[in-house]
Structure formats: structure tokens, C-alpha cells
Amino acid sequence: MRRIFTSAFFIQKKKAAQVGVTILIMSILLASQLAHAQTTIKGTVKSSGNQEVLPGVTVVVKGTTVGTTTDGEGTFSVTTNRTNPVLSFSFIGFEPLEVAVGSQSIINVTLKTSTTQLSEVVVTALGITKLERTLGYVTQKIDNAALTTARETNLVSQLAGKIAGVTVVNSPSGIGGSARVTIRGERSLNINANQPLFVIDGMPINNNVVGASGRSNQEADYGNGAGFINPDDVESMTVLKGPSASALYGSRAANGVVVITTKSGKNAKGIGVSINSNSTFEQVLKLPNYQNMYGQGLNGQFGFVNGSGGGLRDGVDENWGPLLDGRLIAQASSPTSNGFRGGDTRVANRGTITPTPFNANPNNIRDFFETGHTLSNNVAVTGSNDKGDFRLSYTNLNQTGIVPNTDLKRNSFNLNAGYNLTERLNVRANASYIKNTSDNRPSLSYGTENIMYLFNCWFGRQIDMNSLRNYWQPGLEGIQQHNFNYNYHDNPYFNVYENTNGQDMDRIIGNITLSYQLADWLKVQVRTQNDFQSEIRERRRAFSTQRFPFGSFRRENVTTLERNSDLLFLVDKTVNDNFSFNATFGGNQRNNKYDYIDVFASQLTVPGVFSLNNSRVPVEYAQNKSDRKINSIFGSAQFTYRNYLSLEVTGRNDWSSTLTLPNGVVGTAQNSYFYPSASLSAVLSDMVKLPEFISFLKLRGGWAQVGNDTDPYQFAQPFSPAQPWGTTPTFVESSRIPNFGLKPEISTSQEVGLDLRILKNRIGLDVTYYRSNSRNQIIFLPLTNTTGYTQVVTNAGAILNYGMEVMLNLTPIRRDDLGLRWDMNINYSSNRSKVLELTDGISNYQMASRYVSVEARVGERMGDMYGRGYQLVSSDPKSAYYDPTGKFVGQVVVSSNGRPLADPTLKNLGNYSPDWLAGINNSVTYKGFNLGVLFDHRQGGKLYSHTYVVGREGGQLIETLEGREKGYYSNPSDPTMLNAPEGTYFVVPGVKKTGEGQFSENTRRITPREWHSAFTLGRSVIEPAIFDATFTKLREVKMGYTVPNKLTSKIGVRNLNISLVGRNLLLWSKVPHIDPESSSMSGGTIIPGSESVAIPSTRSYGVNLSFNL
Amino acid sequence: MSQQKLSFRMKRTRIYILGSLIALLMGISTGCDNEFADVNTNPNIPNSVTPNLLLPNIIRSAANEIVGTGWSIGNIVIQHTAKIQFVNEDRYLWGNINGIWNTTYGNLRELENMYTIAGSSVPVQSNYQGVALVLKSWHIALATDSYGDLPYSEATQGKTGIAKPKYDTQEEIYTRLLSDLTEANELLSPSNEAIQGDILFNGNALRWKKMANSLRLRYLMRISKKKDVKAEMQAILNDPQKFPIFENNAEHAALRFLPTVPNQFPPYTYRSGSIDEFRLSKTMEDQLKSLSDPRITVFARPTVASVAAGNPVYAGIPNGLDDINALIYNGGAQNLSRIGTSFYIDGFGIPTDRDLNIAQGMFMSYPELQFILAEAAQKGLITGDAKTYYEKGVKASFDYYGLTLPASYLTSPGVSFDPATALAQIGTQKWIALFFNGLEAWFDWRRTGIPTLKPGIFNLNENRIPVRFIYPINEYSLNKASVEAAVQRQGADNINTKVWWEK
What we know:
Chain A has 1109 residues and is mainly β.
């Protein structure tokens, strides 16, 4: 295909483009001079029912881009130079109308209310709007009000519970952290490639999570690309779920597309100002259930001298110490004879410590957290006339997190403007500038930098949080922190105030669209969009930090650019009364650039000066640039018969640079791939006579393919620099073996569905069944490292993904006469992904690993987690633990020393994906009042909790009281605790093997610490920490009142709405200690199914105020 | 302008627009292969390098590995140090210990690259080839002594399509590495090309030759129970011109770390609590005290409590106590010796020259060589005076730690060379001299049983001291048939199965 094109157009591509653009511009200039004599048409639009005037009706001169909307009095005025113009009127909830104007200058029309959803329009791929009834696939939409009233800082998180089939996993960081979205389950073996594509006004944006480069510790979450979009500027978010909905976006859309439409000034009349102010408070939703009976120490003993083993068990950071009964014990917080604190260990004349009461501080961790506050103010100015429109918006977001000294500030500017240069030529531009800064984003991961590592695992229950607030040792400010333990930990206040992860990001998203109406039925459109982001991250570590005794300073600069340009021909032709046709074809050029520079001063010379200039050692650095280009041509055509039968076919061919062999590399890789789709929609209710109670019935079905490329630079076996040895440089070969015969991935999918509305739309049911099969996935297949390499790039896999989505819309109450209405939307979805095959000789593939191993195994589900369990008595005669009597089968086998044995085989511990998801959204309106309540339910799926494991090791959690209800027993002459009183020991439930095939009940007593700190046998047995992740959340409550305009118009205010809002207010779950929505994050990947000492999630509540001027 | 003309012009304009846009579209559609080939060429890093650029990281990562795994496992199992907290390793609750495995195969790939690149350059760079063979042999010996049978003859061939290398027997591996070391000795010569990037010997080819031959003596001794190594050992000693070996501490194979991150002695970067979990082992304390050996002042610090009381004493803790007993032993941590000041720098301290001389990445030391020769002479494997070698070894060990050999030390009871107990004396002195180099000491102990070690009373391994690491769990998913064949041949994959040279 490429050959034919190149030979047919012998001029070089660049030249062709230049010539094309020049001609285009010249033509535009010329055409704009050819204006005709103009006529102005005025009129009023009313509703056919109550004959009331209709504001906001769209009025367009057919065959042109000229149009307007009716004002508050239902009047409009358009100017055209057409002879015999036709006006088309459209408004949601009403049937569209076309009126031939003839020579009239005043046209008054009435619109009929719609009963058959004839006019519901949906924004589909490439930003093209289509009638929903003609679509052969399902889409779902969220409007602005749902995004801005009860808001999330990360726009993406708003999808939870509102869209069937969408799973949102938020990062463990709080404040505007990343969110991982999957639609219809996991399809790709690359765990990062399962997210949908985000599109603004028809053009894709970047949704990267750029993680830490793997330098020691220093893991923080800086947010995902789509999370920075300002909700105030979003008109609506439409989710195109399956690939048939998204076949036109190619490569990245295999997992669905989230189409974001930004607000414009189109519906404004004259100049209007709208203001929205939102203020919410965030509090910790759930903290672990800590024990409050024993404090820090070991074997009931504790006495502070230097916090590193110099006192009585004072190097221990666990809670196996004395009873918290007020006894007098020297502590880090206790005063000394010279007026210092016990913990001021480096003060030369600290003096001797005066013991103070050893008491529980049940709320010490809760007290550490603050009430977070989010204030978001938006002001938007809109204006329009028949020539053009604009909307200018500014939003200021100011957020402080529940973790002290964490914050986020975001200033977003948006300008969206369109202008009809001529009747035929329209230009529209949209520009956003987002400035996002944070002085400190919380540190994550299991390690000293994360405060939850300390709090949930290794924090004395006796510690009074206030005693740590003054976190420097006197006279050693800036040099030596004060803490309760100097062996392993950092003072939590020191951690959050001195060891910061700052962010300073500038992002500009701009697009410009030029469209020209070549004929009544043909429009051509060129547009280009740049999404440019430049981000600086500065990580400071102060002197005396455990991991950085000399402090450190690291500066990363991340620059990303995504540029898309496309050229579209849009055909819309009504052939006759029965038959209409619309089509889009064109081409797209996409370019992604990425540049990452990381400079690290791992030790500083002078305390408190955070600059690379202050490095005590040679700075370490890394750089990574990448570039990717994809060229595409595509086309789609939709044939509609009698407005009830629609067939749409699409096709797209991509050429990707990432699948192009570099010069000098020989191989068979294909860089060109074509993929088609077809879908059919039939409105049965219009085709045949159905019973009266059925208002609408549509059947739909579709088949689609989507191709995908890979990351840049897969066709090389490079050598990467390692840290130099002093001034001696050194390199290491990449441990990934390239594959010079890579093929593009292809995912094929089918979906069928029905849309049924009965009893005059009081009940609406939408059901979709889908399945997809992804083949030739490009994966990095793990190799035994004895081959010298750890991965080989391979096309592998056949993943079958299938599921069901149900949307039920009910209107239990609709009393228009009373102004009362209750709507209920129920979303249900269930998805399964199965691994059909991987590649020759490979039966399992590790997708991610953090405590649990997430593996794809042939014949099993995607998202299955593997790990070890306890050894159980077996019914299998081949097992070493076979019980021929069957009496003990299934019991845990305990060794002679009283601990369970581990079963060495990796076991399937369950799947992290839910069995099903449901959201129930209620909305009640009564006159000006409205109430919205959203419940979100997740059924099934499993979660591993690292907090549970380590919190027990540290004697921190309530479970660890088991076996020490009556204190500790210690008698060196009685190592098996035969004389220990009840309540001072633990017996592991299970049996011990007494001979071949013989078992007896375990009676061996062990100390509670031996049990709780080793119930995972040194974190090698995972199964006891796996929980059912089922939960229900009261996700959202909104209560609002819109003040009637007649009350407020005197002060010039209209549409005044005040709402009380709350999010994540209540949680019901079986997972102990943590919010089951927690996750862990590793190197920029959110790992579902695995929680690792996450910052607690929050509940938020507040008020939203909006009005127009 | 007439209406007709205007309309014509407009039509023409539209045709222009349409035509030019279609041309533009065609332009977009042709993914110009040349341009795309450039776009997909990685600008960040090279696709080829010279051997000198590979060498530094190989040496550094090897040294980091023996220090790291030596610290966390080797020193404990051989009872140089003992744990007072998180005592699993000390009670022989060993899970997978993969560090040596991963570093070995990563470095074998780089060494293979180095050897190949040096071999294909014109003229052939035989010094780099020799260096590659020396380090390859050192690495695979470390790995096979730790795990037993291993992939070797088919290893590091991933690019040629061997995705599941077979496991060679340890005997085959030793045959190969000994012949590689012989070949390395022939390849290496000061008159060949200069060796750059050599952070171990600063480009001195003669020292690489000495390392090759000294290592050969080490490995011949290692397999001496299974093979008659007499002739080969003697041949090396007979011709010092052809087979030079280390002649003093200044020549031995030790990587001197840099004073600053990221090229520091690895434990300098650990948290103080993590370091302080490791204390002087009572086994080592008792041995040193019974010999009145001043090296205890380098290996350990006087206890905090005794220093505070003005009467500094050294005190160790028995290996293999359970958590509580380990923490309360002798009244707690303040009554137990921390490791020596050279092995960990407190607070904002900076390593001194002396510290850098002591805390090194030891590939093979001169004292160790002397003890090998002493043992060989005592066993009649070589001609020579065992006592002389033994005393040179002891003296060199004191020198290494910057200590003066006390005048009476070599004649004191227990040290004074006695042919009747010579093998035990040699082994004991070697064990002391290998302090903080626990892996090598462990390999040696498994062969000789010297010194006599007892497992800790709370051990969880049925009173046996482990003798190998288990294979990485990944091998069972990624190279199942091969590893299972090795296990079939060698014995169960657990920490108590003896490797070939020990059987």
C-alpha cells in the first residue's frame, strides 16, 4: 500500500505537506474575500407542550458552521449569506427540526419533546458527535456537574462507581496521586499497558506515570498525566469501552478511550461569567487497629539510654515491652537532669534521664495526621455571537494533605475559542496552561522514608506524638535529628518537614482546528495538538537521615511531548428519506518525545543547602531520551437506513517507528499494520410494532481489531553506563535480548448489547456482553539469568477477555406537576480474563512482583497472584504429609519446634480482579433541591496486606495481644514453656508428623512474639496475609439547592447553587486495618492486589457554591 | 467580477484545497522508512564498547557481592560474627540467597563480552582475554562452591538461542576453570597491550598472572579430596618464572574501595541498627582470647558498657540464639562487642586510610595463599616447609591489619607450630585471617572441618551447619528440567546437601 502511494506521489512527503499547507492557506484567504450579501434571520423557539420559551437551543445554518443558541427568552439571531438557507434546531430532550427559511427574516418554531431518544448525541472517536441510537457499541458519559461538585483532585478517580466496567485503583500517596484505571479488565500482559487512552477534544494526551529511576529509596508518586486535567474545564467525559468504539484511535485504544470534551462558550449568549467554589476537608478514613496494652521493648523490658541498644532493649523498635500501666520508665521523651530530653543523645551534657510514666497513647498516630483542606475556585467568562464564541477560565486549586507539610497547588488557565472566518471556514483553538507545584509529596514504599512504615510497623505505643514535634537535638539544628530510636528510623516530623519531594510542573496543552465546508455534505478539517509538559522534581534529605547521613539532593527534569496532527474529511449525506450516509477519512501523525535527566548528590557538604553545588561527592546522573512516531491513515463510514438501521465500518493502518528496524539492523520486523472494525445498530422499536409499554428497543453488535506497537528502541542490544568508579567510566550490557522479527500486537473483540426502555423511559436497561482476544502481545519474556540475560522480547500470548455490563436506569418517582423526580442508576459489571497461551515452552509469565507474584499462567486467569502457603496434611499418597486415615487432611503441619512448615510450591492465592463491581447512584430532585447518593460495591478479588504482616511482626496490631493476654513468661530452664500460665504463650493450631502417615495435634508452646513476628516464616509464606477485598463504600453524597433566579437576579446573580458534598464517607469491608482500595507502587507502576504501608485514604466533606453573573 | 466567474473560481479553489489535502494525507500515510529508522535509533547509549569500559563494573560488583553476602551470611555461618536481632540466618532459617547467583551470571555475561570483544579486535587483546578468564574462573568457583552443580558450558549463550542451559557437574566446572586459569597465565603478559579500567591492579598484567596462579592453588586445594593435585601444585611452585604467585600483601587481589559513595565498602552505607544486629561471635572471641591475639582490637570494639565503666573489654555472643535470648544475652547489647571501627563508620565519620586498607573487597589474599601452601606442604602435596609458610601467613595477616606481630606470638601456646596439630593450627589461623571474608572461610571449613564449630542451641536445622545455598526459585519456573536433573544427580535441593568436593 505504501509503495503505491509513494510511487503515485513522487513528490517528497515534506514537500507535499508544504505545498498542501500553502495552497490551503491561500485558498482560505481567497475564500474569505468572497463574502456574499448577508441576511439576518431572527426568531423564538418554544416547547410544544407548555409553550414555554426554550433557552439554549442550538440553531445552525445547514451546510455551514454558522450557528448560535437561543438566549434566556428563547430568541436567536443568525446571519448568513446563503440563498434559501435551511435552519436546523436541536436541543436535548426534543426532536430536532429543520426549517427552510426561504426569504423570511423571522422564524418562530416549536420543538416537540422527544420520546424515543432520537436526539441523544455522543462524542465518539476523533471528537465526532453521533446519534447514540446509531451506534453499534456502548458508551457512557459523566457530565461536568458530577465532576466538580463532589470532586477529586485527580479527575480520573471520578470514574469509580459511575461507569460500568471501570476499575480505579488509586496510588498509596493521597493528594492528587496517580490513579490506575482499567476498563473491562486486564487485556495486556504488560501491566502498565492496560489503561485506556485519554483524549481531549478529539486528540490524545499523555497519561504517563513517570516513576523514580530506581535510585535507592526515594519513591514518591508525582501523579499521572490525565490526573492533571482541570475538572472545571471539562464539559463531559465519555467512556468508549471496547475496541470497536475506539478502533479509530489505533494502537493505544485497545483498552478503551476516555473522551474528554472541554467546555466552550458556544451555549453562552452575550458575555457570561460563571463561578464555582469548592471547599472540602479531608480526614483519615481508616487506620489500623493498634493494640494499647504493651509498649516498646522486648520481653516486657524497656529503658531508654541512647535508642540504639545502649539501654534496656532500647534499640528494639517493636512493641513487646512493658505493660502500659503508668510505671516509671526512662524514655526518649523523659526530661534529663540538665533540662534536655532523653532522646537528645548527641548533646554533650544531656544528663541523666528522669523516668516518666509508661502509658499508652492510643491516638498517637491519629494525632499525627492533620485535617487536609482542598480549596478550588474557578471563574469562567464566556461569550458568543453568531460569528464566534469563547470561554476563558481560571482555576486555582490549593490543597494540603492529611500528612503534615504535604501540599499541592494548581493553577489552570484555559481558553477555548472559535470563530467563523467565513460562512464555510471555522477556526477553533483550545489552550490550557497548567502550573502544578508541590513543596512535598509523601514518600512511599516499604522503607524508612514512608511514615506509614514507621507507624504501622515499628512505632512504640507509648510514644506521645507531641514529644517528637521538636525534631532537632538542641544545638544541633540542621545536623542531628531527635528521635525515639536511632537504630533504624527517622523522626516522622523530621521526615515530612525536612525530607521533602518537591514538584514544579508546567504543562501546556494546545490545539487548533481549522475546518472548511467544501460542500453541503463535505467538510474538511485540519487540526494539531501539542501536549507539552516540563517537570522539575527536587528531593531533599537532611543530615542525619538514616539512609542519607550526610543528607542528599536530587533533581530530576522530566519533559514529555505528545503531538498529534490530523486531517479529516467528513461526509454527511442524506441520500433520500430512507437512506443517509456519513463518513470520515483522513490521516494522523503522532509524535511522542520524552526526556529524563536525573542528577543526584548523594552526600552534601554543608547542612541545609540543597543544591548540586553543595555535593560532597561526585554527582551521579542519568539521562534517557526517547522519540516515537506513528503515521496513520484511517476511514470510517456509517450507512443509516430509515434512521433505525445503521452499519458502521472502520479501517486504519498504522506505521510505527518503534517497529522499524534501525539502519544496519537486519530482521523481519513489520512496522505497518492494518485493522478493521464493523458494527451494527438496529432500533427494533422503530422497525416493528412492539407492545405499548416498550418505548425503545435497540440491538447492537460489533466486531473490531486494534493493533499495537511497542516501546522505542527495542531493536538494539545496548550498553548502559553504570556509576563510574571515581573518574573511571564503566558500562554494562542490557540484560534484555532483542527480537528483530517483532510483529505488531493484534487484539480482536466482539460485543453485543441491547438498550431497552420501557414505561415511557421510566425503566431503562442496557446490557452488553463482550469478549476479546489479544494475540502476539509484545512482552519481555523472563529468562533464567544463567543465559546471561533476564528477558527476551517476544510476541506471545493469547488472552481471552470476556464479561458483561449492565446499566439499569430507573425513575421510581416522576411527578412533573410537583417538580419531584427520583432517578436511580445502577451499574453492574463482571469481567474475566484468561490466558489461553503464552509462547512455545512457556507456561507462566511474571507480570509484576511485590511480595506476591502476579503471574499469567496458561489456562488460568489474568491477575492471579502466587505465593507460598503453609504445608497442609495431604490426601495425596505421594505427599510426604499424606494421612491415610484422612482425619487430619487440610490441617497445618507444624514442626517439632512448634512453627508451621511452609509448602515449598507456589500456590494460586486468588485473583486481584473483582468478581463483579456495582455502583448505585440515586438522584432526587424536588423543585430547587437535589440529593445525590452514590454507593460503590466491589465483590470479591483478593488483596495482600503488607501492613498486616509487618504490623504483627512489630507487635503493633491488635492481633498481637493473642498469647500475651496475661503478660510474658520467660524461664531459661523451661524453653518449651511447660510451666507457663495461660495467656502467656501461643500454640499454633495444627498437627505434627509423628511418623510415616502419622500425625498428632500440636501442643508445642511458643512465645507470642515467636508466633506473631514469624507467622509468615520470615515473610516467605504469603497466604495468611491474603484477604477478600470485597467492600462497599458510600462514595458520594451531594445535597444541593438552586436558588430561583427571581430571588437572586436583583443582585445580578443567576443559577445560584449551594451544595454540601461528601466523598468516601463510609466503608464496609472485611479487610482488617486498611482500606481495601489501597495499593502499592513500585517504580511508577501501581501494583493492584498488593498493599504496602499505604498512606491512609481519606474521607472528605465540604461545600460547593456555584453561580453565574 | 461576474457571478459566473466568481463561482468558477470558488470551485477551482475548492479543487485546489481538496487536491492539496489529499496530497498531504498521502504524505502522512507513507511512514518514510529511513526517517523512522533514525527515530528508532537509541540516542542515549552505545551499542558497542571496548573491554576497558566493561572491566570496572565487573570488579566492583564482584567485590560488593562477596562483601555483602559475606556480611549477611558468610561471617555468621562461619561464626566470625553472630546476630542479636532478626536471628533467622543465624538459626539457619535460610530462604533463597540469590546474590552470588545473580552477580555471577550477570558478570559472566560481561566477561564473555570482554573476552569476545578483545578476541575480535586487531591485534587480539590477549591481556583482556586473560583478565576475563581469571575473573570468570574466580566467579564460577564462588558460585559452584555456594550452590554445587551449575550451568557453565552452556551459560551466557542466551543470544545464540540457548534459553535453558544444562547444569554441569561441579567436577566438570572445576576441570574447566583450572584449565582456563592455566590459559590465562599464558595469555597475560606485561608486554601485551595496556590494561585500562583495571581498578583492581591498575593495569599491572603481572599481578593478574599472579592472581591466576594463586587462584589455581586455591582451587586445586579445594578439590584435593577428590583429585590428586600434587603434580599440578608442585609444577606451579617449581617454576616461579612461568607461574608467578603473590609474594606479599601488596600484590594480592583486594579491591580498595573509595572513601565516598557510591563506591564505598558496602556496609558503610547500612543503617546503624542493621550493622549492630551483627556482633562479635563468641566462637571468635574465645579463639582470639585463648591465643591472646591482638587482632581482636581490629575485628571488634570494646563493649559500650565496659568503656563507660572505664575498663574496656571485648565480649562476643554465641551464634544461633533465639530472638529473646540473643537480645538479653550477657545483659544486652551494651555488653556485646560491635564489629571493628574499620568495618563501619559511625555518625559523620570519614574512613581513614587505615580503614580503607582493612575493609577491602578481598578476592584472594596473600595470607590465605601462605596457609594454602602450609597445608599443602604439611600434607605432602608440595615440597617445602609447612612451618615457614604458616608463620609467613600469620605475620602477613598481622601486617594486613596494620598490627605488629607480638614478639612472643609465634612461640606462644596454641600458635607455636607443632607438626602433630599443624593442620588444625593452619586452619585456625586461616579462619582468623579470613575475618569478614566469611564465604571463603566457610568453603574451607566445609572441606577441612577446621576450626570445630557447633551450631547454635536454638538452631532450626536439626543441629547441622548448612553446607550450601538452595537454587533460586526462579530456576524452577524458567529452567525446570535442567535444575531438576542437577538435583537428581547431586541430592535434594536443601542447605544440607554436600557438594562434590566435600563428599
